[in-house]
């Protein structure tokens, strides 16, 4: 099939899947909902529980799941190509550890750091993610001009370990309930409760996706190696920088919105590659759309299976992702 | 044998804040020679050595103090074995329902040689609760959501009390009907959808460890609930932000907590 | 056509090396349609020189001129349209088909969002045929043998439609059969498609069979340069490699052959 047709086919298929997930998810849940009452204009919104369940509880979290899923899956694709490592995830380079440290500080030392209707936890986690990105980049470029992916990987892993131990240390000093709440944050939570956090994360995600749109062909060539890509006309350093910063931005925004939901960034890219091959012009849009659909599905399940209790969505993705990851490892070796 | 305190009664180290409060309530305050890291009540404990908590008991310093009785959490099995081996008596505290509070008071009282005072304090505790129960009995029971944690200033990561535990018991006694009573757990992570569906008439938003909180901040926390205007409690202004450790420590101060909650439910 | 003008580039000693790597004051010229071999022992600077001449790294001093124009003044894309590179070995991080890998050669000719058109597909097919790999087009690249991979990478370089092709140890990891195939393929490309070739290798016989002229490197400097028959002398081999060798014209092979006999004694 010619490239143009393949791309159109992919976007239509996976786009249809994502759109279907977006439309169906708000309609199902633990509480029966009458669509007629949801859109009944004669009842004021403040007195219409059906409309509020639809517009306050379900729709925002569906949108949040779509954005977080899309961002993490796309960031996973980009990080895997950048690091030339199929086992890389959006969290490999320490972005999520930085975000977790930020979120944890905000949970344990609650200060009134709300800004424009966004509460302190997402703000602190986003700041933590940016801090981690800056540190990893500085470490990876300190010795020389270029961007060594090996050093990047080592810096990321080291930072992950270091932040994790700082987190453990602060948790150790915190009281039991606070520790419990920080642990719970790590499992992801898409019940955002309003559109404000979504609108706050959206601009960063849009910037990241604008960058993603120019990357795919250069990412294809990067899989041959940096020298081979350069010899074919790729500005390798520019591509690596753009990949690193845009994928980190998408990850940071996603984690601050929904917590570090695990495994999306590795399951989705690999599933998509199994279906459509490795060409990033196909893989990147397909993974973006499939990531959205996949996380919406997981979140819908997580709010229903134990209702009225929430099953943390990260547990569900990990239950699916753990065995998948193992299968991937065994298949490769 | 460990050195006895004045009057032949044993000295005590308590790593459990609830039991520390009980010890002072039964008049065993002078026997307490060490407390846990998170103990802050009564004010006297501030001058006592802090000997760790659930995860990090300071075994060495506890042994040096040689208390007659060590109060620990029921899950601290290893510490328990260690202490019993050197002849220190152990009281293992488990957080349970409201009934367990006077029961524990009597037990720890008799263990530290204050059986009579403990009986008195426990009975007074029970009497006070009975009074609150009796006063509430006449009123209509309001459907109540008991929240003991959420993100500051936002309705995210909401932890509520399920149908077991002292918080549920206190609210039931004070005239409320826990909307998540059917979930047989102490702690339930609930979604906004579940809250909208449960339609509570009263919301008790409990904050602990933050008694410094100003009225403005309490107002901000109350305002966070305006995101769910269809909830009756929000519509009718029955969202109460109550701050203080007494709401989350199953000790003698639960009487005060119950009074505050009853007042909120009456409002 | 491609000229190195007094190039110097140093990098710290690699593992097991005592002296710093790189090249010092190296000048050489690859004429249009020529096949120039860059020879030297391990660590003599062959790969560095090749990367400098492909514009992949910037010299500390000196210039690389392509048709009289400094490479440093041109963008990566412009250079890639003129010079293609075949590395010693290619490992893919992800599974691409042979056709996809060859089409990647078209990168410098396409706009940022432009898709490959009919002309690109035609050039890719032509490149596959010219390298005898058309039957592999649908195969996954990682499943190919070493020799097949190298031919596909050469096909990708041909699809790049660059008049100059630089190869770094193209046969180092191949068996003798594949080595002969690659040599024949390169001679054919040079004859039929007028591709100018620069080949870095430490395989003296491979170079003798292929190259019209040679540059002999020793510790980053040019030890000898000129037509193949003048460079491959007993003296040069002894100076550069430290071995005594038997050099003779092999009638059946049709080129000089070098047989190392013994480490040369120090005089």
Mean residue pLDDT of chain A: 88
Number of helices of chain A: 14
- Average residue-wise pLDDT of chain C: 89
Count of domains of chain A: 1
Q: Which regions of chain C contain 5 or more consecutive residues with pLDDT less than 50?
A: none
How far is the first residue's CA from the last residue's CA of chain C?
40 Å
Look at the structure and give the CATH class of chain C.
Alpha Beta
Strand order of the largest sheet of chain C: 6-7-8-3-9-10
The share of residues in helices of chain A is over 70%
Global geometry of chain C: globular
Radius of gyration of chain C: 19 Å
Counting DSSP H or I runs of 4 or more residues, the number of helices of chain C is: 9
> Cα-atom Rg of chain A, whole angstroms?
20 Å
CATH topology of chain C: Rossmann fold
Count of all domains of chain C: 1
β-strand percent of chain A reads under 5%
Element string of chain C (H = helix, E = strand): EEEHEEHEHHHEHEHEEHHEE
Q: Find the structural class of chain C using helix and strand composition.
A: alpha/beta
Unreliable runs of chain A, pLDDT <50, ≥5 residues? Answer: none
Strands of chain A, count: 0
Describe this structure in words.
The complex is a heterotrimer of chains A (333), B (267) and C (267). Chain A contains 14 helices and no strands. Chain A has 333 residues and is mainly α. Chain A has a single domain, classed as ABC transporter involved in vitamin B12 uptake, BtuC, CATH 1.10.3470.10. The radius of gyration of chain A is 20 Å and the shape is globular. The two termini of chain A are 32 Å apart. Chain B is α/β, with parallel strands linked by helices. In chain B, 38% of the residues lie in helices and 18% in strands. Chain B has helices at 17-25, 59-65, 77-85, 100-111, 115-137, 166-173, 192-198, 215-224, 232-235, 254-266; strands at residues 12-14, 32-35, 69-73, 89-93, 142-149, 158-161, 176-178, 187-190, 202-207, 239-243. Chain B starts with 11 loop residues before the first strand and ends with a helix. In chain B, 52% of the residues are buried. In chain C, the strands form 3 sheets. Chain C has a 6-stranded mixed sheet, sandwiched between helices. Chain C has helices at 46-53, 76-82, 98-103, 118-130, 146-159, 176-192, 204-210, 228-231, 234-241, and strands spanning 2-11, 21-30, 35-39, 61-66, 69-70, 83-86, 164-168, 196-201, 213-218, 221-227, 243-250, 255-263. Chain C has one domain (2-263): 3-Layer(aba) Sandwich (Rossmann fold). The mean pLDDT of chain C is 89. Chain C is globular. The chains are: A mainly alpha (333), B alpha/beta (267), C alpha/beta (267). Chain A binds chain B through residues 29-31, 45-49, 51-53, 56-58, 61, 106-107, 110, 112, 114, 118-121, 172, 175-177, 181, 184-185, 189, 191-194, 197, 303, 307-310, 312, and chain B through 38, 53-56, 148-149, 151-157, 159, 180, 183, 185, 188-194, 196-199, 208-210, 217, 220, 227-230, 235, 248.
């Amino acid at each position: 099939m010619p490239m143009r047709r393949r791309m159109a086919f992919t976007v239509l298929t996976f786009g249809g899947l994502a759109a279907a997930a977006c439309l169906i998810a708000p309609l199902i849940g633990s509480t029966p909902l009458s669509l007629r009452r949801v859109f009944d204009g004669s009842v004021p919104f403040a007195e219409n529980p059906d409309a509020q369940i639809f517009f306050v509880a379900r729709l925002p979290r569906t949108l949040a799941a779509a954005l977080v899923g899309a961002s993490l899956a796309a960031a996973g694709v980009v990080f895997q190509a950048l690091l030339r490592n199929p086992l890389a995830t959006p969290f490999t380079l320490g972005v999520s550890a930085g975000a977790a440290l930020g979120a944890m500080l905000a949970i344990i030392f609650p200060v009134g750091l709300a800004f424009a209707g966004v509460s302190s936890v997402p703000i602190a986690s986003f700041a933590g993610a940016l801090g981690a990105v800056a540190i990893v980049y500085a470490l990876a470029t300190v010795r020389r001009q270029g961007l060594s992916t090996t050093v990047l990987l080592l810096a990321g892993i080291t930072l992950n370990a270091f932040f994790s131990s700082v987190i453990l240390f602060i948790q150790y000093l915190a009281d039991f309930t606070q520790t419990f709440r920080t642990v719970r944050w790590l499992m992801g939570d898409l019940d955002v409760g309003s559109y404000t956090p979504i609108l706050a994360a959206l601009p960063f995600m849009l910037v990241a996706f604008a960058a993603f749109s120019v990357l795919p062909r250069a990412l294809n060539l990067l899989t041959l190696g940096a020298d081979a890509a350069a010899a074919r006309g790729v500005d390798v350093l520019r591509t690596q920088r753009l990949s690193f910063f845009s994928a980190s931005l998408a990850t940071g925004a996603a984690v601050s919105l929904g917590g570090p939901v695990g495994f999306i960034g590795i399951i989705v890219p690999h599933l998509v590659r199994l279906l459509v091959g490795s060409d990033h012009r196909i893989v990147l849009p397909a993974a973006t759309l499939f990531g959205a659909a996949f996380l919406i599905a997981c979140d819908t399940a997580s709010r229903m299976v134990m209702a009225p209790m929430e099953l943390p969505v990260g547990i569900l993705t990990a239950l699916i992702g753990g065995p998948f990851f193992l299968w991937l490892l065994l298949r490769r070796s | 044998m460990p050195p006895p305190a004045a009057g032949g009664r044993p000295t005590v180290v308590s790593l459990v804040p609830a039991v520390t409060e009980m010890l002072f309530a039964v008049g065993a305050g002078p026997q307490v020679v060490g407390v846990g890291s998170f103990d802050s009540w009564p004010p006297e404990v501030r001058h006592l050595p802090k000997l760790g908590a659930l995860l990090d008991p300071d075994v060495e310093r506890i042994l040096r103090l040689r208390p007659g009785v060590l109060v620990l959490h029921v899950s601290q099995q290893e510490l328990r074995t260690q202490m019993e081996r050197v002849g220190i008596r152990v009281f293992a505290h488990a957080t349970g329902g409201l009934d367990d509070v006077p029961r524990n008071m009597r037990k720890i009282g008799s263990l530290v040689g204050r059986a009579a005072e403990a009986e008195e304090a426990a009975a007074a505790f029970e009497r006070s609760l009975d009074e609150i129960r009796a006063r509430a009995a006449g009123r209509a029971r309001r459907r109540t959501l008991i929240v003991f944690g959420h993100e500051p200033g936002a309705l995210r990561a909401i932890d509520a009390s399920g149908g077991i535990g002292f918080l549920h018991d206190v609210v039931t006694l004070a005239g409320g009907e826990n909307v998540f009573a059917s979930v047989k757990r102490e702690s339930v992570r609930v979604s906004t959808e579940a809250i909208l569906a449960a339609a509570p008439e009263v919301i008790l938003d409990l904050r602990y460890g933050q008694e410094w909180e100003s009225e403005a901040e309490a107002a901000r926390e109350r305002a966070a609930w305006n995101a769910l205007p269809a909830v009756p409690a929000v519509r009718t202004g029955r969202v109460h932000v109550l701050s203080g450790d007494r709401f989350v420590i199953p000790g003698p101060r639960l009487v005060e907590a119950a009074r505050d909650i009853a007042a909120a439910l009456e409002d | 056509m491609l000229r190195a003008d007094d190039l110097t580039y140093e990098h710290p000693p690699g593992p097991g090396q005592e002296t710093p790597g790189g090249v010092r004051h190296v000048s050489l010229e690859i004429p249009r349609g020529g096949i120039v071999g860059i020879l030297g022992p391990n660590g003599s600077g062959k790969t560095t020189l090749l990367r400098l001449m492909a514009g992949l790294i910037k010299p500390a001093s000196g210039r690389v001129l392509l048709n009289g124009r400094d490479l440093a003044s041109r963008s990566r894309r412009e250079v890639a349209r003129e010079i293609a590179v075949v590395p010693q070995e290619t490992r893919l991080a992800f599974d691409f088909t042979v056709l996809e890998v060859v089409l990647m050669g078209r990168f410098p000719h396409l706009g940022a969002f432009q898709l490959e058109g009919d002309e690109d597909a035609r050039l890719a097919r032509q490149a596959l045929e010219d390298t005898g790999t058309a039957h592999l087009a649908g195969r996954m690249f990682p499943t190919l043998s070493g020799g097949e991979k190298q031919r596909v990478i050469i096909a990708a370089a041909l699809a790049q439609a660059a008049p100059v092709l630089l190869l770094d140890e193209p046969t180092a990891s191949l068996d003798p059969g594949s080595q002969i195939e690659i040599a024949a393929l390169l001679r054919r490309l040079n004859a039929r498609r007028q591709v100018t070739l620069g080949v870095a290798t430490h395989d003296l016989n491979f170079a003798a069979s292929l190259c019209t002229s040679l540059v002999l490197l020793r510790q980053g400097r040019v030890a000898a340069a000129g037509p193949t028959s003048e460079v491959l002398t007993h003296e040069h081999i002894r100076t550069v490699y430290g071995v005594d060798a038997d050099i003779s014209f092999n009638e059946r092979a049709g080129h000089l052959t070098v047989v190392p006999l013994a480490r040369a004694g120090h005089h």
